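Thread: Modeling a multi-component assembly for a lab meeting

Hi all, long-time lurker, first post. My supervisor asked me to bring a structural picture of a complex we are working on to next week's group meeting, and I have zero experience with this. I have the sequence lines for every component (221 residues in total). Could someone generate the structure of the whole assembly? Inputs are pasted exactly as I received them:
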Amino acid sequence: EAQVTQNPRYLITVTGKKLTVTCSQNMNHEYMSWYRQDPGLGLRQIYYSMNVEVTDKGDVPEGYKVSRKEKRNFPLILESPSPNQTSLYFCATVAGVNNEQFFGPGTRLTVL
Amino acid sequence: AQRVTQPEKLLSVFKGAPVELKCNYSYSGSPELFWYVQYSRQRLQLLLRHISRESIKGFTADLNKGETSFHLKKPFAQEEDSAMYYCAPLGAGSYQLTFGKGTKLSVIP
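Re: Modeling a multi-component assembly
Sure thing. I ran the full set together rather than chain by chain. Output:
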């Protein structure tokens, strides 16, 4: 079954404690992306990756890092989380054939 | 600058009533247009894309290049249509979607 998975699904942490949210896809898609979803603001892109070792900033990259060492994984790293990073995070991939984006189930992050 | 406007944050309609969720875009070139839907506590999923010209779950959307609009319509709303709806243009040759802020549709029984 084609899918995008994220872990953890829920995370409560404290300011400054480094964390990583993993994203994995089994569709062999080249393009992967991270979004954050906030009430009234919709989805905003954090980072994206066109392929292995190729990453670029989206609209709201401050405070985040990513890496793409292999095609299937695209982890999101928060080196020093702050309360304004409390949000719902979605990973997504794109099917090159028809440009459909496939989303992960989301990770709800709370930074105290 | 690329911009997507969904003017209604919340739209409430009665079951059986027609629904129209508005989307206007400002985009260079000829973008491809999508509607994504997010049901409660679920991930976003593709609802429809303009180039396929298909109807999904009774929804249709017509691309009006003159008005740069891509409104989503359904003649008779159902309770299960209650969800967040996002309009999203995709620039030609790009994989980067620009999402609108979304419209929450609430269908009243």
